[in-house]
Each structure stands twice: as structure tokens, then as C-alpha cells.
Amino acid sequence: MVKIGNIELPDFPLLLAPMEDVSDPPFRRLCKLHGADLMYSEFISSEGLIRDAMKSRKKLDIFDYERPVGIQIFGGDEEAMSLSAKIVETVNPDIVDINFGCPVKKVVSKGAGAGVLKDVDLMVRLTKAVVNSTQLPVTVKTRLGWDVETINIEEVALRLQDAGIKALTIHARTRSQMYKGEADWEYISKIKQNPNIEIPIFGNGDIDSPEKALEYRQKYACDGMMIGRAAIGYPWIFNEIKHFFGTGEKLPEPTISDRLLAVKQHAEWSAEWKGERLGLIEMRQHYSNYFRGISHFKEFKTKFLQVLSLEEFYQLLVETEAFYQNKIEI
């Protein structure tokens, strides 16, 4: 068992990464259904929360069926982070997470996300501001460092632990790498070997198959893994990894029917949460991901991108399934 404060997780938990415009409640629900052990929200601007920005507030929506769930905040100002942690606490998540890893320019330029990697003292102050403002366990997601010359993750891990965090997720790339190149998990292994590290350390980066998950678990001895991009359009990855850990065997790939059911659930939950029209419009980014590598899907993609009602959507699902069952050998 792995513990984050008073939150109990199974041995070697699989976490769903906080991904902007992806990790919303409908997507989290689907990943939970397929084996994710801990979910995180999309990242939320501390400044946006304080200004009561509607988009930031909407990201605070959490539901009991997805617990345990953490809400992730980012920012570069201690007072704003402290206030936003108090706002987050009012919706009663299980965990407050701090984003010190987002590499995108609009976040970094505000001295937030991975921008804080350049100033470890500030990172510690921001962390303490959050820890001191909430009764909830605080976790952090970060990267190895700003660039290869300034990798400082071991110092960061120790100092954040001293500041009171209850778990640390490390995306094993630097900010300058963005999402390119290979993630270097050797640094995660080094931190796990440090006798002064007592909190759970979760690895993140490049886990895209059960085989790689098992290899990295054995090689780098982290306490669990966070999965991000590999779950987009493929929520089955969580249970596939767990099954492989337990049996050494791979589950069969999801069938067309499995894919259509996942799309149906995702769209229904999206429509329920956002309203039918907006929910279906925002589903447009997901259809291709669910059918990646499936022949002839282009013929249906255009139709999926045009539907604006659940009635049309259900009809298209029936049409798509009929086509694949009658025409294609999968």
C-alpha cells in the first residue's frame, strides 16, 4: 500500500496526469473505469481562482465516483497560491497538487509551472504557502530541472519534502526538452536510493505500454507511475498495465465495439457536464484518438465532427459499428 497523507492507494498505483483540456471530469471518469487509481484535475491558475474566473472555477468540479482525486494549482505568487489552496479546500478534494512542471511559454513567462525550476528558494516558499493554508495532503509535480546543465531534482525533492509535501511526481525531462527526446528515469532511481527520502516518488514520462511499465518499475524502483499522453484515446492502458504486472500476459486490444462504447460514455458524460451542444463540440478533439490506427475511420471522422445532438451521435455510433462488423476483418 502507498499512502499520501491519509489517502491509501494500492501497491504501485497508476495515476492519471493532469492534462490541460483533457483531464476533465468525463475523461477522468473513463480512466477511473479502466483502472486509474488516482486522478488529477487540469491545472488551475491561482490568479484565475482568486479573480473568480469562470473557466478556473469550472475546473474545480469533482465527483465522488472519481475519488481519490487531486486538484492541481499553479502560480508564482505566495499569497495567491495560499488563497487558492483555501478555495480549493472548499470543494473537498482528497489532495492539493502544485504544478512546477508545465513547460508551456504562457505559464513559464509568468514565473509559474516549470518557470519556478530556476528558483528553488521560491519553489519552497510557494510550497510552504500552500502546505500552511490547507489541512489536505499537498503533492507536487515537477521536472528534472530547467535544462541539462541545471538538473537539480534531488535537492528539490529533499527541500520539498522538508516543506511538508506528501508525495512527489517527477516528469523525467527538463523544461528545455518540453516533450521531446527520451525521459531519463535514472534521476528518479537516484532519488529513491537517497535514505533521506521518505515520501512516495512517482515516475512520469514515456510510459506507453505494459512492457515498458514493467521494465521501468523493476529498473527504477519508484512507488508508482503517472500516465498522461498514452491515456488520451486509450483509457484501457491502466488495466492493461495492471494485468501485465499480475500475469505477465497482455490483454487483447480493445475491439471496435470497445472503442465505440468508450466514445459513447465519454460523449454522454461530456454532454451531461457541459451541456449537449458544447459537450459534443469539445469531444471533437478526442474522436481520432479513440480510433488511431483503425482503417477506414476517416470516412466517419467528418460525420463525428459535425454532430451537435446526442440523437445524431447515437445514430452515427450504430452506423459505424454496423460498417465495421459487416465490412472489415479486425
UniProtKB/TrEMBL annotation:
Catalyzes the synthesis of 5,6-dihydrouridine (D), a modified base found in the D-loop of most tRNAs, via the reduction of the C5-C6 double bond in target uridines. Residues 15-318 form the DUS-like FMN-binding domain. Its EC number is 1.3.1.-. This is tRNA-dihydrouridine synthase. It comes from the Bacteria. It comes from Cloacibacterium rupense. PROSITE patterns: UPF0034. Its cofactor is FMN. Coiled coil: none annotated. InterPro entries: Aldolase_TIM (IPR013785), DUS-like_FMN-bd (IPR035587), DUS_fam (IPR001269), DusB-like (IPR004652), tRNA-dHydroUridine_Synthase_C (IPR024036), tRNA_hU_synthase_CS (IPR018517). Keywords: Flavoprotein, FMN, NADP, Oxidoreductase, RNA-binding, tRNA processing, tRNA-binding. It catalyses: a 5,6-dihydrouridine in tRNA + NADP(+) = a uridine in tRNA + NADPH + H(+); a 5,6-dihydrouridine in tRNA + NAD(+) = a uridine in tRNA + NADH + H(+). It is an enzyme of class 1 (oxidoreductase). PANTHER family: TRNA-DIHYDROURIDINE(47) SYNTHASE [NAD(P)(+)]-LIKE.
